[in-house]
């Protein structure tokens, strides 16, 4: 996997709180046994008027022509709450999103992003207000994300964001987490040696 | 400074510190058909081994039918998922409890039932309700599929340490008020995302008085407050539950384990980042009115007006929820008619839940126009219920009696609601579309669900108990 460093793209506004994993990717699409192809089902209930996904819902924010091709998703509090299904980030990345900027994220979803090169950025509500306003005023406006510098810029606004060092490192390098841990196999062996029988 | 229970379990499992990452050892890894196939595929692609198949246990629960034991009963996609799990377990040497097996059931029901989950363990599963197992004083949490693969290959996980929150519930519950009502009241108080970034420890006299099954109901829904995990310190009730369970330690191992478990509690001078307190006497039977579990009121209280929320985002959220739910502010839930009842899920499908529901069901018949199903959490629960003739009570009252599985909790099988259906459900999520596109879910306790089935609308179960 290649890493994320800088991103300059337009953003799709999803001005909602508590966007849960059942909305991001409903259960009927969890029967696949592969990681690919979930993008067309992203936000299924909101996005389509029919079950066959033939009739897009014209009211749904992401269906508006001006938001097509967006690589950044804007949302509010507690994005990704609910299930641990990694199908949620799989569907967002398969759709074409590379970053989600929201007021806050649910823990499991946030962790899942790190394993899928999807950059979650938390900003406070007033900063989110400015981002939503900028996209509202000009849907084509480019939002710039600089991960190493931990900055989001739009127009004259510039916001710093926080991200843990190891998360940042992982997103930038696109590391194989398992490969890294396997280098510590001697420590795992030693740990197992001293385990009591009941565990 | 003293340590919290969370600190103690954490310290017991620290394998290595790699930079800002902590490598944590995983004692038990539970898997099911939905979130494991891509992880097995990942292992194979890289030519990696499953490090500890003996610490890995698999069941089928999400995609199976509750009407038939046939693997193809819910269509080819579900069947492929189930077959893939069978093949993977075979190939990697993982013990599997498939459909029809005496030990099969919902992953969070069978783990405890078999004695696989012990105090002081770390337990993970590609499923957010893994928090259930915290009832044993085990650090248990849901993980994504990439992490499932990581545990397969290394039996460890990279973790950051969460903050600690103590949730104290003191006092005595009123008749008709259950563990489900406690946890819904807690989530109502701290909010749907109120515990994000925290591990919760439930404490206080009302928690100490609960049975293991009730404690599981509480811990199960920790994730619905956003928490990483929920814990309850093990005590004599825990030890009594585990003693002689099939996979629990025996003889000298049991004694050694007990000696360790006695120390598994937060020290008196342990510091929590946050403390929340509730009084058991204040808790009434709860019903959710919205589309997240924090949007909840007592059954005898009116649905709040969106304007009563000072936070703008919460206000919009409430407006959207009421619209989706087809409800109005000020309405009383006891006036709201229902079309469906679901008694089941990893929150409330254990024997005590079924007993509580059956006690109410015995008082009447399912109201005309209401479709009510009871889905035991496991094969063992089903057998026990049938030995007690609870199935007869349900069937006589007009409920359906099904085979164990997740069923209508998320409807990955054919137990699905249609748009506009309104369901009193003992499950844990009332999200939009959770039980079917456009379907409306109200979370309640098993007794409240059974009472709603008989009345055709929500009722205050305390009235029936008089
Ligand atoms: S019963 Fe519901 S919440 Fe529990 S594991 Fe199954 S689908 Fe998930």
Structural account:
The complex is a heterodimer of chains A (199) and B (466). With 199 residues, chain A is α/β, with parallel strands linked by helices. In chain A, 31% of the residues lie in helices and 15% in strands. Chain A has eight helices and eight strands, in the order ββααβαβαβαβββααα. Chain A has helices at residues 21-24, 44-47, 87-95, 107-114, 125-137, 165-173, 177-182, 185-193; strands spanning 6-9, 11-13, 72-74, 99-102, 119-122, 143-146, 151-154, 157-160. In chain A, the strands form two sheets. A four-stranded antiparallel sheet of chain A has the order 1-6-7-8, with helices on one face. Chain A has a four-stranded parallel sheet with strand order 2-3-4-5. Chain B is α/β, with parallel strands linked by helices and 466 residues long. Chain B folds into two domains: 5-261, Aconitase, domain 3 (2-Layer Sandwich); 284-464, 2-Layer Sandwich (Aconitase, domain 3), CATH 3.30.499.10. Chain B is 33% helix and 17% strand. Chain B contains 16 helices and 19 strands. Chain B has helices at residues 5-13, 37-46, 76-92, 107-113, 145-154, 179-190, 205-208, 212-220, 236-242, 251-261, 312-325, 351-361, 379-387, 390-397, 446-455, 461-465; strands at residues 14-18, 21-25, 28-31, 56-59, 95-97, 122-125, 139-142, 156-159, 163-170, 198-203, 229-231, 274-279, 286-288, 296-298, 340-343, 371-374, 400-401, 422-425, 440-443. In chain B, the strands form five sheets. Chain B has a five-stranded parallel sheet, with helices on one face. In chain B, helix 12 links the parallel strand 15 and strand 16. In chain B, helix 2 (37-46) crosses helix 5 (145-154), helix 6 (179-190) packs parallel to helix 8 (212-220) and helix 12 packs parallel to helix 15. The longest helix of chain B has 17 residues, at 76-92. Chain B is globular. The relative contact order of chain B is 0.14. The mean pLDDT of chain B is 96. The interface between A and B is large, with 56 and 77 residues. Bound molecules: iron/sulfur cluster. The site of iron/sulfur cluster has 14 residues of chain B, from helix 4. Iron/sulfur cluster binds next to helix 4 of chain B.
């Amino acid at each position: 996997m290649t890493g994320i460093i800088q991103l300059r793209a337009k953003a799709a506004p999803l001005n909602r709180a508590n966007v849960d994993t059942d909305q991001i990717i409903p259960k009927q699409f969890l029967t696949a046994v592969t990681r690919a192809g979930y993008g067309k089902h992203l936000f299924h209930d909101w996005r389509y008027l029919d079950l066959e996904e033939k009739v897009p819902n014209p009211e749904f924010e992401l269906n508006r022509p001006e938001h097509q091709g967006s690589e950044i998703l804007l949302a509010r509090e507690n994005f990704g709450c609910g299930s641990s299904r990694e199908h949620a980030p799989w569907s967002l990345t398969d759709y074409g999103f590379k970053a989600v900027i929201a007021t806050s994220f649910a823990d499991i979803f946030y962790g899942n992003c790190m394993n899928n090169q999807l950059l979650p950025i938390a900003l406070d509500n007033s900063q989110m207000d400015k981002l939503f306003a900028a996209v509202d005023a000009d849907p084509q406006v480019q939002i710039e994300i600089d991960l190493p510098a931990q900055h989001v810029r739009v127009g004259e606004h510039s916001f710093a964001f926080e991200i843990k060092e190891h998360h940042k490192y992982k997103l930038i390098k696109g590391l194989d987490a398992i490969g890294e841990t396997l280098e510590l196999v001697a420590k795992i062996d030693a740990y197992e040696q001293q385990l009591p029988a009941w565990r | 400074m003293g340590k919290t229970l969370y600190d103690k379990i954490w310290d017991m499992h620290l394998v290595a510190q790699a930079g800002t990452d902590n490598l944590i050892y995983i004692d038990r890894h539970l898997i099911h058909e939905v979130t494991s196939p891509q992880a097995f595929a990942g292992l194979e692609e890289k030519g990696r081994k499953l490090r500890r198949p003996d610490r890995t246990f698999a069941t089928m629960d999400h995609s199976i039918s509750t009407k038939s034991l046939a693997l193809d009963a819910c269509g080819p996609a579900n069947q492929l998922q189930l077959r893939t799990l069978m093949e993977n377990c075979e190939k990697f040497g993982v013990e599997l409890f498939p459909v029809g097996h005496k030990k099969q059931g919902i992953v969070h029901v069978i783990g405890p039932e078999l004695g696989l989950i012990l105090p002081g363990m770390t337990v993970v599963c590609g499923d957010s309700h893994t928090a259930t197992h915290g009832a044993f004083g085990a650090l248990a949490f849901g993980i994504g599929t990439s992490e499932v693969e990581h545990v397969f290959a290394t039996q460890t996980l990279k973790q950051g340490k969460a903050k600690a929150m103590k949730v104290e519930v003191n006092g005595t519950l009123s008749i008709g008020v259950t563990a489900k009502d406690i946890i819904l009241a807690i989530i109502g108080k701290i909010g749907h995302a109120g515990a994000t970034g925290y591990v919760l420890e439930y404490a206080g006299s009302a928690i100490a008085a609960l049975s293991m099954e009730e404690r599981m109901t509480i811990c199960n829904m920790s994730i619905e407050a956003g928490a990483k995990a929920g814990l309850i310190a093990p005590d004599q009730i825990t030890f009594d539950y585990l003693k002689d369970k099939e996979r629990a330690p025996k003889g000298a191992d049991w004694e050694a384990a007990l000696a360790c478990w006695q120390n598994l509690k937060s020290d008196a001078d342990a510091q929590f980042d946050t403390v929340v307190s509730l009084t058991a006497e204040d808790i009434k039977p709860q019903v959710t009115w919205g589309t997240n579990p924090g949007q909840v009121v007592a059954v005898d209280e009116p649905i709040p007006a969106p304007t009563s929320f000072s936070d703008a985002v919460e206000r919009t959220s409430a407006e959207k929820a009421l619209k989706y739910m087809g409800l109005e502010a000020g309405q009383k839930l006891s006036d709201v008619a229902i079309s469906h009842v679901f008694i089941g899920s990893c929150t409330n499908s254990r024997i005590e839940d079924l007993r509580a529901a059956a006690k109410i069901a015995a008082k009447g018949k399912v109201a005309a126009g209401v479709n009510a199903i009871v889905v035991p959490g496991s094969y063992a629960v089903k057998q026990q219920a049938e030995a007690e003739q609870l199935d007869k009570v349900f069937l006589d009252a007009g409920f359906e009696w099904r085979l164990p599985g997740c069923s209508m909790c998320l409807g990955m099988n054919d137990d699905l609601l249609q748009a506009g259906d309104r369901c009193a459900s003992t499950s844990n999520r009332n999200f939009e579309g959770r039980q079917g596109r456009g379907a409306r879910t109200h979370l309640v306790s098993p007794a409240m669900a059974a009472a709603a089935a008989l009345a055709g609308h929500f009722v205050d179960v305390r009235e029936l108990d008089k």
